[in-house]
Amino acid sequence: MNYKSYLFLLTLRVLGLLLALTLLAFGIAWFNTYAIIGGAIISIIAVYNLYRFVIKRFVEVDDFFESVKYRDFSRWFVETKGPQDIRELHQGFNLVNKTIKAIDSERQAQFVYLQKILEMVNIGIIAYNVESGDVLWSNDSFLKTLDFPSFKNISFIEKRRPKIYDELFETYHSNTASVTLELRQETLKVLISDTVFELEDHSFKLIVLQNIEETLNRNESEAWKKLLSVMTHEIMNSIAPITSLAETLQHNIQHSLDQSQPNTLDLEDINAGLNSIKRRSEGLMKFAKTYRSLNKVTHVNKTKIKISDLFGSILELMKPSLEDKEVSLIFELNDPNLTFEIDAYLIEQVLINLILNAIDATEKIANPKILISANISHKGTGQIKVMDNGSGIPAEIMDSIFVPFFSTKKTGSGIGLSLCKQIMLLHGGKIQLQSSETEGTTVSLLF
């Protein structure tokens, strides 16, 4: 609305009323009958006109507010009839309605987009009123995961599946939790999390449900396929030469038996062949034990141990491996009384694995060095570091270093670092790796 036009018209009517009242006052003061009658009539007309002028605008505003109250933004106010200020007022109303309709359309579009996205995700979602149990919204994935038909109130589940109802709607999961739900003919493993939020004086609960049964089964199947592929390959590599050599020895012995002349066997060849079979068999046994070690590490037995004793034990164990190598193994410990609460046996296994890797990495380096240190960081975290000046790890394989069965060595099984990571996780810690192809590698064990 153009307030200047409205103010101008209002001022004219107020001035007209003042003039009429002035004329009426003049007639009364001078006892002029014509002035009294004329002033009275003009005053009445001016008051009526001013009243109509003001009331008409208030009625228009009240009419607009009434439409807002009932959210009727489809109404169109006439812009081509009536006084100029009324037309401008209608233009303002129409502009507000148009803007609100545009905002509402945009919000509806966003809601539809969001709804379609949530329908497409493979995660069950439901929101409901905590007081009444009325379902605000749920997607098809939620119904499909739990094999439910569409329902409007959670009391539907309470009557038919009380155990699922207690787990989903009565139990509060502040953090994402893994639970097993009992369905009609099977059990289902899911991840569940929920939160409560306020909306227009009502409390709502949002539950997110993810079926991890299929994911676990798929990952397990892929892991088994990978494991069987690797084991089959390794076992065949060991069995093939054993079989070939055994056939050769059997052929020689059979040939000797068929000959009439005695002592035609070459005992040295037979002995060498049997030694080869023995070495290959031992390698196959070692391979099987290596894979079995992954299943053995399921818990830790922590005890307080001095790091100086741990380092001394490592040095004794590594002496035979270092005798024929020119690698400097250095232990650095600023506090000889430094104590960690760890499983010494498992951490020894981790450190030996890391040292052997470091030895391989420094094989072609001049003046190879391996430094092992331990301290307490300023954050109070116990840490052991294994640093070498070797060839480092290429950036393109850094993300695969801890993946089981991944190895860059021709003779590696690919489970060493994976086993180290599992041991650190069982300790409630973690293993971090920093490497440069020019400066070497640093592996940090954080407890």
TrEMBL record:
Residue intervals of the Histidine kinase domain: 230-447
The reaction(s) this protein catalyses: ATP + protein L-histidine = ADP + protein N-phospho-L-histidine
SMART domains given in the database record: HATPase_c (SM00387)
UniProtKB keywords: ATP-binding, Kinase, Membrane, Nucleotide-binding, Transferase, Transmembrane, Transmembrane helix, Two-component regulatory system
PROSITE patterns found in the cross-reference section: HIS_KIN
Keyword field contains ATP-binding: yes
Protein name listed in UniProt: histidine kinase
Any Pfam family: HATPase_c
Transmembrane regions: 7-28, 34-51
PANTHER family: SENSOR HISTIDINE KINASE GLRK (PTHR42878:SF7), TWO-COMPONENT HISTIDINE KINASE (PTHR42878)
A Gene Ontology molecular function term of the record: ATP binding
InterPro entries, sorted: BphY/WalK/GraS-like, EF1B_G_C_sf, HATPase_C_sf, HATPase_dom, His_kinase_dom, Sig_transdc_His_kin-like_C
E.C. number(s) listed in UniProt: 2.7.13.3
GO BP, one annotated term: osmosensory signaling via phosphorelay pathway
Organism of this sequence: Gelidibacter algens
